[in-house]
Structure formats: C-alpha cells, structure tokens
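Lecture 7 notes: from sequence to structure.

We start with a single chain of 216 residues. Read the sequence below before looking at the structure.
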Amino acid sequence: MAAFTFILVVIVDKKAHWDKAYSGSEADCWSWFQSSPTVSLELIGACGLSLDASIIDVGGGGSTLTGELLGQGFTGLSVLDISSIALKRSRERLGDTAEGVVKWVESDITGFSTIDRFDLWHDRAVFHFLTNAADRQKYREVLFRNLKPGGFLIVSTFAVDGPKKCSGLDIVGHDSQSLHKALGGDRLQLLESRDEEHVTPKGGVQKFIYGRFVCR
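Now the structure, written as tokens:
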C-alpha cells in the first residue's frame, strides 16, 4: 500500500485576524503599543521634511504617530491599515484635529493602489509579517511605485534575536543588513539604523531594529 503524506495548510484571513485583534482589547493592552513613538519621531525629524510633506504610516491604524505628527503641524498625512477597526479607533481618538488633514486608507499593503506619491514611508511592524518571498516582492513593488526618488523610508521590524511571533502570527526578524537587502538593496541607501528594546504594556521586552533609508 502506498504511503501518503498529508500537509495541513492554514490560510489566515488577515483582515479578520487584525479586526479581531483591535476589537478585543484596549490599546494599552496590545503588546506592540507605544504611548509615544519616540524612535520613529527622532528618525522622521532627521529627514528634515517640510510640514506639507506627503507622509504615509503603513499599518498605523493603532499607532499614536499620526497624532504626534499632527501636533507638530504636518498637513499631508495618510494612514494605511488592513483593519477597519484600527482605523475607526484612531479616527475617533483624533477627532476633529484630523479632519481634512489625514487620509484614512483601509487596505492590505501588498494590494495597495494609489496615485499619491510620498516623501516619507513609515512602517513599524508590518514588513516583518511578510514571511513569504511573493508578499515581500509585492510590498517592494508598491513601495517603489509610490515613494518619490529622494524620498525617505523608515521601517522597523523585530530584531533577529527578538520575538518569533506576534499576535499569534509568524514573523521574519532582521538586522540592518538583511533589512536593507529585503527592502530593495541597491535601490535604497541606508542612512542609519537603530536598535530598540520596546517595553510592552505588560512589562515584557521586544527587540526591534529600525532602518532609515533614502530612495535612489
């Protein structure tokens, strides 16, 4: 009798997963939550952008970054997230201060389509969820189609010695060199990298790596 091997493939509905994650708890219970995105703000500040620069925060539906940038006077902000729940919460939190200033985009980044072109692309903790090469390639295609030449890219992922999962999903950790290569290699110049030990709301520690790049 021939032997058969059965392989169970689990397909995650990403939107449903993240809608559930964002609807099931308060912001200060999410492991990735930052009350103040200090490193991101420092790296954005180093880019020397004008206040009318076009900025997109990828996966930023549950982040406080947009509120901080609004407070600094930036006027060309977009927030993209796969979760409508995350976007709704941020819109409610920011209220009238974001009206007419922030563009809210519900989309999976690998399928994002827009005519907008950005001076800055910020991504904290989205890219590391792209565990297969095809999705990383789609991300790069969207990135280079929409980031202006000379525009800045700030991406943060878990470090190589950081967590292997987040919100029950596998991730791919990086160091500065592997992150540079995975994002596009010679199409980007690495300007600086930062390590961060993020203390979660429950007191745990997650190691992150940040890269700030300029698009050639």
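Residues 25-215 form a domain with the Rossmann fold fold (CATH 3.40.50.150). Keep this in mind for problem set 3.
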